[in-house]
Specification:
Strand order of the largest sheet: 1-2-3
Number of strands: 3
Order of helices and strands: HHHHHHHEEEHHHHH
Structural class: mainly alpha
Strand content: under 5%
Distance between the termini: 74 Å
Radius of gyration: 27 Å
Largest sheet: 3 strands, antiparallel
Helix content: 55-70%
């Protein structure tokens, strides 16, 4: 039986995979079969074990393929052997213990001070939702809190007398964050507007109908506002947290203090922001240092 054809038919007819995906899967399987014939003198998928697959991975590393490309090809094998197991062509899936190759973390560029300054022209504080959206973005940037931490805030989280905010972070770890005067003014204005709603929650941030806000609402809010001032492709709430840390570093804040404010359990997590800032410093250094400038003829 031609299991490759049966597999592709299964993906097309039952799983409704797109044509280009089927072409990609067929190409990966043909490549793997060619490798088996060349290396092990067999094209029979029923004889495959994981050491054979591992050798295929090694051959790609030798060809300097990226981990992302290798993972995609191995994903094809994983799906294929699951199918063979399903139709009882094999008894053990040779990909069962396989773990995807690690991919390098993509550093996201934080929102700039200029983008944040431009944004102020678009806030509309005369309506409840306009005031709420302004405060959400202000809080994310001025405190560096996570999106979920913002959603979880309650009325009791705020201490207006002490100018601070109690945040419940990962693993239920509490931390206190200082509030700027500009944020306090927005909070008071927002709370006044909030009083006029029919509420069924004690959460600080609510919808116009009085219900607690949710992750997608926060994402949409940040995305819709920053589309007006930024050309970045990804406009997520996390970039405000990133901007908070980056701008504090730019102003000379100690990384250990930033670690506490962000609620990181280890300094390694905070050091991600120093790497991105160091790249910018390197550019400035290379452009401005006398020894790096080309001499005029």
């Amino acid at each position: 039986m031609d299991y490759t054809t049966a597999f592709l038919d299964y993906l097309q007819l039952e799983k409704k995979y797109a044509r280009h995906t089927l072409t990609s899967y067929a190409s990966d399987l043909n490549q793997f079969q060619s490798f088996l014939l060349e290396k092990y003198d067999t094209g029979d998928f029923m004889e495959v074990n994981y050491p054979m697959i591992r050798q295929w991975i090694v051959s790609f590393v030798d060809k300097e393929l990226t981990n992302k490309t290798i993972n995609r090809k191995l994903s094809t094998l994983k799906t294929f052997f699951k199918f063979l197991l399903k139709v009882k062509a094999i008894e053990v899936n040779p990909m069962l213990q396989h773990k995807s190759l690690k991919l390098p973390k993509r550093e996201q560029e934080a929102f700039s001070l200029l983008e944040l300054e431009k944004l102020s022209a678009y806030f509309e504080d005369s309506s409840f939702e306009g005031l709420r959206d302004h405060l959400m973005i202000e809080m994310l940037y001025s405190t560096g809190m996570r999106r979920q931490e913002l959603i979880d805030l309650t009325l009791s989280s705020i201490d207006l007398e002490q100018n601070q905010l109690k945040v419940l972070g990962k693993r239920n770890k509490e931390r206190l964050l200082p509030l700027l005067n500009s944020t306090l003014i927005l909070i008071r204005d927002y709370l006044e507007e909030r009083k006029g709603l029919a509420l069924d929650t004690d959460k600080l941030f609510v919808t116009k109908s009085g219900k607690a806000i949710y992750p997608n609402l926060v994402y949409r809010t940040v995305n819709s506002y920053f589309k007006k001032v930024s050309t970045k492709q990804k406009l997520s709430p996390h970039l405000l947290r990133h901007a908070f840390a980056s701008h504090l570093l730019d102003k000379g804040a100690e990384i250990t203090a930033i670690k506490e404010l962000l609620g990181h359990s280890s300094l390694a997590s905070t050091e991600v922001y120093t790497h991105s800032n160091f790249k910018e410093l390197s550019k400035v250094h290379a452009a401005a240092h006398p020894r790096s400038l080309k001499k005029e003829d």
